Structure formats: C-alpha cells, structure tokens
Amino acid sequence: MTDAASLPDLAPLRAWFASYCESFRSPDADLQRNFDLKELHTRNVCAAALLIAQGGDGRRQMLAEVAALCHDLGRFPQFRDFRTFKDSESLNHAHLSAQILQQSDLLDFLPKHERDSVLFAVRLHNAFEVPAGLAPQTEELLRVLRDADKLDIWRIFMEYFHAPAGERASGAGLGFPDLPACSPDVLAAVGAQKMVQLSTMKSLNDFKLLQLSWVYDINFPGTLRLIRERGVLEQLAATLPREEEVLEVVARVREYLERRLDGCPM
Ligand SMILES: [Fe+2]
Description:
- By secondary structure, this protein is mainly α.
- The protein contains twelve helices and no strands.
C-alpha cells in the first residue's frame, strides 16, 4: 500500500477542472445544459473510478481519479464548436482530451510513466476495444476508466428518457431518430453476446441495444455488482419495445451478467 501522505494532492487539478468548466459558461440554455451534463458526468466518473479502483494501492486510486477528471475535457470544445457529442460528425473527443492535456502542464506533478499512462487511458477510453500490448499499469487504468465511464453514461441515458423533452440535454441521444423498431442485425449481435459498433446504429432503439451490449465489455466485478444494484439492465429494457425478440436479447444479457457475477468463466 502507498502511504497516503506521499500521494499528490489533487485539489489543484480539481480546482482547475472547475475553472475549465466555468470558462465555457454560455447564456445559450441548450449549450449550457450540455456543458453541465459533461461536468456532472466527469464528477460521477471520478466517483465511480474511485469505487472501482478501491482496495488496491492508493496510487492506483489517485491515477484513476486523475484519468477520470481529464477524460472528457474534449467534450466541451466539441459541443461548443459542433453542437454534437457524436464523434463521427465532429472529432474524436478522447484524442482532443489527450491533446489538451499534452499542451498543458496539468500532469507535470506526476512522474513520466504515470503521466504517459493517464494520457494513454484518456486517449483510448472510447476505443471499441482495449488494444493489446499496453503496459500493465496503463491497461489497468484504461479498464477502470472505461468501466466508470459506462456506469455514468447509463445514468445519463436513463435521465434523458425520464426528463421532459424541453429539459433534455440535446447531445445525450446523439441525434438518433426515435423509430419504433430495432434493427435485426443489431438485435442478433447483442443476442450473440457481441459488442455493437456505434457506426451500425440506425435509431435510438439501436443505440439502447448498443448500451446493453456494453455489459459484455465490463472489466471488474465491482462494476458488474453496481450494474445489478442500480438496475441498469431493467431500466434500459423498460425503454425498449416490449417485443419477444427484444425480451429474449435482454434475457441473454442478464444471463451473461449473472454468470459473471457468479464468477463463471465466459
Ligand atoms: Fe465520459
């Protein structure tokens, strides 16, 4: 265990993040709602990353918070300049987050190998898969960040559906059309326990199925427990059409979750 006294104080970085958010403040209500969404999201991802990384080395938790705090910096200029959170229609927000970090001295309080791990985790947090060949510390950090990010994106998405239309942050639904059906190929992929690519989405329902498929990409037992405790699958399922094929796919994802919680190999 790392001696807590030897850990860097993150208060300056947290304060910098608050001022960074403040620097985007806008009188445009929709713009500000989307900035607020990302500020709250970042704070929640920090909390989730700390939960997931707890019980280990204190440094591991500290790095998890640093990576979480910085992972979506690019979301602010992305939404300001393009009015979307859809990377394919704007830019790769994770690359932009890493670029903002690299062009600053924000991470100078960390030794170089830890700085590089944080930069890597931030840059790759939205990649379809965790790439092979990463240094163990970097891979661990990336996996913590990806789990924490998903946990809060699920929350955002549920709140989006429960909010009155006029109060929704416009970016949260990624602009997908709210069509009644699910695409058969997306249903088949999720039913076959495959992750779904964002580029194949045709509707909001497909996007909900994609979010169900994220359960297959979860790394830590603690995250799986939080998914169950928070009723993520049930809440997502409640927003989907109540058709037999859809219910079957949801059941498949639930079986997967329960098997992993029981510690069975996949
Ligand atoms: Fe995020």
